[in-house]
Automatic annotation (TrEMBL):
The lineage of its organism: Bacteria, Pseudomonadati, Pseudomonadota, Alphaproteobacteria, Hyphomicrobiales. Residues 38-183 form the Resolvase/invertase-type recombinase catalytic domain. GO terms for molecular function: DNA binding; DNA strand exchange activity. This is Resolvase domain protein. It comes from Methylorubrum extorquens DSM 13060. InterPro entries: DNA_bind_recomb_sf, DNA_bind_recombinase_dom, Resolv_N, Resolvase-like_N_sf, SSR_resolvase. Pfam families: Recombinase (PF07508), Resolvase (PF00239). It comes from the Bacteria.
Length: 678
């Protein structure tokens, strides 16, 4: 190439050519392969042989992991399920944790000892393979390698058939042992004592009490009166408690419906093929008396109707005797009763109490004292101290349970060192340890303290206004956002409510602590003195049981809620003109009658704007007038009656005979609120 046509050194064309040559020659070298992250899943149930123990599975998975050359973090990527069946993946915490880690991309290879450790269900196997494959995770069987979908389906189907065979063999062995009298019963029930070997003997004192119960019931005594009779004589019940009606009959497991009481032991009572063993030496009563009593009470004659609604304080209220209050629903009224007093258990508070009255007092407490900027912070600091003490106690219990779980794991690994020869006694001990490990693991998941619910003092005025609006809707509440906010606020602070019902009044003691404490721990320290206690007289009858409701109706009336416009007045004026004994038939009288029909309040609770009509409507019965007005306004789709609740739509002849005022209509959802735990 001639020199005169070459680009000059440093010219833009020369730089462009050099850059293109450099980009083509500077190719990337081979990238260094990073080892794949490996996770293990191990499972053991009490019915598995010892060579499927956790230690043996871990050893095989480690050997396979070394052959793959991957990385394994035992602290983060080891997922274990103990005392869990492979029939389903429901309730297996290890499976759930493994899938969550796979979604987070923490590993790429899952190693199991066998597919039966992962699942013994072909459907679950296909679903797990699809989920893990979609997340970029491959499944490896130790000593076999990666398995594909058709392989995992075949292996899981084989494991499923093996499980059914094992369960059939186990039940067949138990059945043969029961027929031979070697599997009589693992623990004795009320009326019997355990003796050496798989056998029972009668407890003379308890058998006499059972015989008396049969005689009393056969004579016509109902179960509640029977419980009262036994509690009144201070006869100790099962486990040292008090006698309750539900303890007598429980589908073959109650005190009076067990076939062993007539000398017949039934193994697998509710199974497909129960086995009957004759034991006349254990009979407490005659077979005729047993059959006669159980024919009347043994089979339930009716089903309990589901509760349609529940107060938001359900589960928090206790009687002064210490027992929880029983809820009785009677139409629109709901009352709390001491169940111990009803069955004669030593409590004399037999009188019921309205749940809405208790709710009103608790809401009044929150509005005027707990949400008070002066006294509220001191109470919140006390609750924080209570929560910190509970948290420390629960953490100590968690450490103790965790240490025992680790000790059991070491004992299980020690029992499974020899895989060639399985000792049956070691297998039995292993099953007991697995059961204890499972129970402690369940306990560990329950030892959780809910977070501390601190009050938002910047929104205290908003919360006070919400509580007032809820009080204006008592006794009904809704599932609206405002009502649920108030319910959450109350249940995040109140740990327990003690109700003491007397003839002249009632006493409320509200305890503040850490609601939601784990089972076995007290949510409040009663010696700390962090409670609110007041004595109240019995509430008056009629609408004044809920004064906020009455005041709310009066405020709505003063704001013009029941005011008729010219069109509505022209439509209802003929109805008013034809009504006798109403005095002046003007628009104010019509609005006063509309107020009575919409609220259920009598004339003596009229607001100031309707007070001139009170003497005229005090003894009058405007039911027919209200019925005609409502029909006319409803046909016109008038906004005055648009918010009429179901109670207000019932056209009574005597409106003044209503016991309570109709509450203000709910905000969003008119259906009653039910506790999720109910």
């Amino acid at each position: 190439m001639p020199e005169d046509i070459l680009p000059r050194e440093g010219s833009p064309l020369q730089l462009l050519i050099r850059n293109r040559i450099d980009r083509r020659t500077d190719l990337p070298g081979p990238t260094q392969q990073t080892p794949s992250v490996i996770a293990y899943y191990l499972r053991r149930s009490s019915a598995d042989p010892l060579y499927f123990s956790i230690a043996a599975q871990l050893a095989h998975c480690n050997a396979h992991s070394h052959s793959l050359g991957g990385e394994f973090d035992q602290r983060r990527l080891l997922f274990v399920d103990r005392h869990r069946s492979g029939a389903t993946t429901i309730g297996r915490e290890g499976i759930a944790a493994m899938l969550e880690a796979a979604r987070q991309g923490r590993f790429r290879i899952l190693v199991v000892r066998s597919i039966c450790r992962l699942t013994r269900n072909a459907t679950d196997a296909a679903r797990l393979h699809e989920q893990l494959t979609g997340l970029g995770v491959s499944i490896h069987v130790a000593g076999r390698g990666q398995v594909q979908q058709y392989e995992i389906m075949l292996l899981a189907l084989s494991a499923q058939r093996e499980r059914l065979r094992m369960m059939a063999s186990l039940m067949d062995g138990k059945r043969r042992a029961a027929v031979g009298g070697e599997f009589f019963g693992s623990w004795p029930t009320y009326g019997y004592d355990r003796i050496d070997g798989p056998d029972w003997r009668k407890n003379v004192n308890q058998a006499a009490i059972l015989e008396r119960c049969f005689r009393e019931v056969d004579a016509g005594l109902n179960l509640q009166d029977l419980a009262k009779l036994l509690n009144g004589e201070c006869i100790p019940a099962r486990n040292g408690g008090i006698w309750r009606p539900r303890h007598f009959f429980a589908r073959g497991r109650g005190l009076l419906d067990r076939p062993i009481l007539k000398g017949v032991f039934v193994w697998s009572l509710w199974g497909e093929k129960p086995i009957t063993i004759s034991r006349p030496d254990l009979a407490v009563i005659s077979a005729d008396l047993f059959d006669r009593v159980n024919e009347r009470y043994g089979v339930p004659t009716r089903t309990q109707e589901p509760r349609t609604r529940a107060p938001f304080l359900l589960g928090l209220v206790r009687c002064a005797c210490g027992d929880r209050m029983h809820l009785a629903e009677d139409g629109n009224a709901m009352h709390l009763h001491c169940r111990t007093a009803q069955i004669g258990g030593g409590c004399d508070r037999t009188k019921g109490f309205s749940t809405s009255i208790v709710a009103r007092q608790v809401l009044h407490l929150f509005r005027h004292e707990i949400l008070d900027p002066d006294s509220g912070p001191e109470l919140e600091e006390g609750r924080r101290i209570e929560w910190q003490g509970l948290n420390a106690t629960v953490q100590a219990e968690r450490d103790r349970v965790s240490a025992r779980i680790e000790q059991i794991a070491h004992e299980l690994d020690a029992l499974s060192q020899d895989e060639e020869e399985i000792d049956p006694y070691a297998a039995a001990a292993c099953c007991e340890l697995e059961l204890e490990h499972h129970k402690l693991s369940e306990r560990l998941t329950q030892l959780v303290v809910p977070p501390f619910g601190a009050l938002d003092w910047e929104r205290v005025d908003v919360d006070r206004a919400r509580i007032l609006r809820v009080m204006e809707r008592l006794p009904s509440m809704s599932r609206s956002g405002e009502d649920l906010r108030v319910i959450e606020l109350v249940r995040s602070i109140v740990s327990e409510i003690e109700l003491d019902i007397r003839e002249d009044g009632y006493q409320l003691r509200v305890w503040f602590g850490a609601p939601g404490a784990p089972k076995g721990f007290d949510a409040v320290d009663r010696l700390a003195g962090r409670w609110w206690m007041r004595w109240f007289p019995m509430p008056p009858k009629g609408p004044l049981r809920y004064p906020e409701v009455v005041l709310g109706h009066q405020r709505r009336a003063e704001a013009g809620m029941f005011r008729l416009d010219d069109g509505d007045w022209a439509a209802v004026e003929p109805v008013i003109r034809n009504a006798p004994r109403l005095g002046p038939r003007d628009r104010t009288t019509a609005e006063a009658i509309l107020f009575i029909g919409m609220t259920g309040l009598p004339a003596k609770y009229f607001p100031e704007r309707y007070e001139p009509c009170a003497p005229l409507l005090k003894h009058a019965r405007p039911g027919a007038v209200w019925r005609g007005m409502y029909e006319v306004l409803h046909q016109r789709c008038s906004p005055v009656v648009a918010e009429a609740g179901p109670a207000a739509r019932i056209l009574h002849e005597d409106l003044n005979s209503r016991a309570h005022a109709h509450p203000v209509p709910p905000l969003e959802d008119p259906s009653p609120w039910c506790d999720p735990k109910a």
